[in-house]
Structure formats: structure tokens, C-alpha cells
Amino acid sequence: MENPYVKCPVYKTENFTLRLVQLEDTEDLLQCYSDPKAQELFNADHCTTDFRFKTPDELRHCIAAWLKAYEKEEFVRFAIVDSALGKPVGTIEMFGMVGVYKSSLGVLRLDICSEYEQAAYLDELLTLCVGEFFPLFGVSQISHKAIPAAAGRIQALLKLGFRPCDLPDRPHSWSLQRSIAMSEYPKFTMAFNISTTNEERQEVFELYQQAFNAKKLSEETPPESGEVHMMLDIYGFEILLGPGGETGRGMNNPLICEIRFDDEKEFRRAYDVLTKEGQNSSLEGPYPWATLLALVTDKFGIGWALYYNA
Questions:
Q1: Cα angle 145-147-149, degrees, rounded to a multiple of 5
Q2: Which end of the chain has less neighbouring CB within 10 Å, N or C?
Q3: 41 touches 101 (CB < 8 A)
């Protein structure tokens, strides 16, 4: 998937075109941002303005700030263009793991003229966002604000599987968690199996970032564990940085090779071969993230974590 900050994608649906917002959109977008009914539904949480504009100059200044943020890779603000009319009628904003914030939770904002605040139009736009933004921004979860009065928006969110979520700093949030198939992960990665706290894991990342320009691909906390898991990229090679020693038994290796399987026969064949003369092993699961987990130290002392998902 191409980096949206290198080349901003253009999307088309039945009625709309999404592209990077432009200063030339000011006059048309003012109809949205001066629309009292639309203003009631704007999401201005954690923003420096409430987006309730009265003059072209106010909005032009805001669009310039959006474009500056895009240059800094903070977020992408798309213009929603009515394809039949050829003019913008609203905007969509998104940020996530790709860019400077490195968040596995993507926040999706959607502002649109009130005449388009209908379930059919919103379903069309949100369906596009769900289909494209998870991989584009590298997120595992998308959050969108919908106040109780936004009946059409809530209807579209429910249809797509969004559910109300408790985010203390983002009231009226609805969230969609993406279930990632095992086949979407790299077949082979490595893990640093060292006992660290969440704070120490951040220090580990910062150390490798300075030494090797490492990138944080994802950061997630499994339900009820409280332990942050980071996936790092070092020169194109993916490395998991987790709590170490918390899951599984008999794995004292600081470096572990990870293999992911979609085929149970292949999984069990690899497990049987490695354990035949192995030093220690365990077969565990199911877990939320793996149907079966095999932890093996082979006869040469190499640590292996084999994952199978049905």
C-alpha cells in the first residue's frame, strides 16, 4: 500500500470523489462549514477550532493549516466532491500508524453539508473508508464520533459493524475493530523475548530508532493484559517487541523466530520435527490471537514460536 503522504490517493464511489483538499475548495466548502445543521455534528475534539466558519478567509486559513499538517504527515484531509456537481460538499480526515502519530487507533472525521446527512450517502462514504483506510493508514481500529442526534450516521455505522466505545477523551465515539487474518501477517518475523515494562519497551524502540532508524509499524494492547506489544521495522525486517516471558513456558531465548500458519497440518509437521530432539516445548491455546501456539527450543538452542489460526 502506497504511503498517502507521498501520493494522496483518489477514490470514487457511485456519487462522490475523494481527493486531497485544496485552497481552491474554499468557496464551495464554506456552504458546509457555515451550515448550522452540519455544524451540530462536527467533531472538533482535540482541535484548535470548532470549524464553525462564516467567511471565506476563516475557512481558507483552516484549509492552509490542513495542508501544512499533511506536509508534516499528521493527517490527511480529503475533500468530498459531489461527482455530478463537480464541487466539494464536505471533508473527511484520517490519521493512524502511517505518519507521525504512530497510532493503531485511527480517528475518522466526516463533515458534510446537511442535505447529504442521509444514511444512504453516509453508508456509501463510510463503506469506502472502512474498505480503504485500515491498510492505507496501518490501523487495527477506526473510531468515529456520532452524537445521539445523528440518526442517519448511527444507522450507517451500525450497518458496518461499528459499536459504541468508551473513550474518555473522545465522547460519543463508535469503533470498528479489524479482524486480521493470519495470512495478512508476514510468514516469518522475529521477537525480542526480554522481560520489560511498557515504559522500557518504549525505550527499546527509541534506542533502535536512533541506531537503525527503526519504524514502529503497530502498537497494541491485547484485552485484559495491559501489556503493550510493538511491531518494529528495522531495515525492512519485522520484529515483535512484547512483554517477554509472560506467555508460554520454557522459552528463555532472548531472540525467537516466529512462523505463522494457516494450514494446521503444516503447523503440526513443523512442531513434530522441531520437538523430536528439542530441548523443551509447549503447545498452548486457544488465544484471541492464535488458535494454537507452539513454543519450542530446538536441539541447537534456537527458539521458535509457531502460530496457527483456523
A1: 145
A2: C
A3: no
Q: What SS3 string covers 189-251?
A: EEEECCCCCHHHHHHHHHHHHHHHCCEEEEEECCCCCCCCEEEEEECCEEEEECCCCCCCCCC
pTM (2 d.p.): 0.64
How do the residues of the chain divide into helix, strand and coil, expressed in percent and rounded to 5? 30, 30, 40
Note whether 296 and 275 are within 8 A (CB).
yes
C-beta of residue 277 within 8 angstroms of C-beta of residue 227: no
d(CA 66, CA 77): 7
Could you give the CA distance from residue 98 to residue 135 in angstroms, rounded to a whole number? 10
Angular region, 197: left φ>0, alpha ψ -120 to 50, beta rest: beta
Residue type, 231: M
pLDDT tens for 89-134 read 999 999 987 778 777 788 999 999 999 999 999 999 999 999 999 8
